[in-house]
Amino acid sequence: MEPPKVQQPGEGGLNVTLTIRLLMHGKEVGSIIGKKGETVKKMREEVSASGARINISEGNCPERIVTITGPTDAIFKAFAMIAYKFEEDIINSMSNSPATSKPPVTLRLVVPASQCGSLIGKGGSKIKEMRESTGAQVQVAGDMLPNSTERAVTISGAPEAIIQCVKQICVVMLESPPKGATIPYRPKPASTPVIFSGGQAYTIQGQYAIPHHDQLTKLHQLAMQQTPFNPLGQTTPAFPAGLDASNQASTHELTIPNDLIGCIIGRQGTKINEIRQMSGAQIKIANAMEGSSERQITITGTPANISLAQYLINARFRDVAAMWNDPSSMTTS
């Protein structure tokens, strides 16, 4: 399938639909939301008339994802409102500061790693062209964000420069679609520390270790046993060397307790379908057997398919364990 033909930024705009994700710290999100949600409500009203939507991820996280979806002209309008709001915050903060030079506005985009090569260009030619033509500073992170296949793209400068730079980034993203499955970055909740000892989960509350949910203990044990990758809490692992060398289909089986199978299936099968789509593996969940407290999961595909499916299942256990540890985030799953 050929990538969509798009116009270069100009009077006619790009006139296509796109989704852009921004990574923001809590203070930045607070600025966008505003007092009693008034700021984000106003932004949503202005861009919704153009067919765009602004969504902010839920959860008690130090970082949040702001997703803007809609026609590119409306996306640029949303970016302009966010950039000018951040500039306003900078100006207000300087009124009580001895600093004389105004720091630049900074936004962080979250972009599939497979598209970052196109943003950089051969020998850095594309990113250099963006910097020179817009006046904005653009940096593409070398490492992927934890537990994802996405990288952060940081844009700094005056609001006008940022908007022009975003337009050029949109053109590149549309002309060079992502390759393969993308595992989206999901910020981790800010939660009470959890330790595991003797197969039991404990939360640290003051000077005491309080035994935690039995479910959380089971999830931790499964995450440690069922995956060939790094232990819980470490960054996204690299696939073993030579993993893609063999495309011959094989089968791998997992055993999951009945009371935890729901977190893999998800509401109306959404989670298991997402894992199937991302991994490219066939995943079958056996029916519950009378008298058995466990269910069998059969994964079929290439070694790469199977390993990615195992990793995604493990990541799902991590997500659910985090939600058990932070009940306020449970409504988002």
Describe the structure.
With 333 residues, the chain is α+β, with helices and mostly antiparallel strands. The chain has ten helices and twelve strands. Strands 2-3-1-4-6-5 form a six-stranded antiparallel sheet. A three-stranded antiparallel sheet has the order 7-8-9. Strands 10-12-11 form a three-stranded antiparallel sheet, covered by helices on one side. Strand 2 (53-56) and strand 3 form a beta hairpin. Helix 2 packs antiparallel against helix 3 (72-94), helix 3 runs antiparallel to helix 6 (159-175) and helix 7 runs antiparallel to helix 10 (303-325). It is globular and about 70 Å long. Mean pLDDT is 77; it is low at 1-13, 204-208, 225-246 and 327-333.
Give the key terms.
333 residues, six-stranded antiparallel sheet, globular, disordered N terminus, disordered C terminus
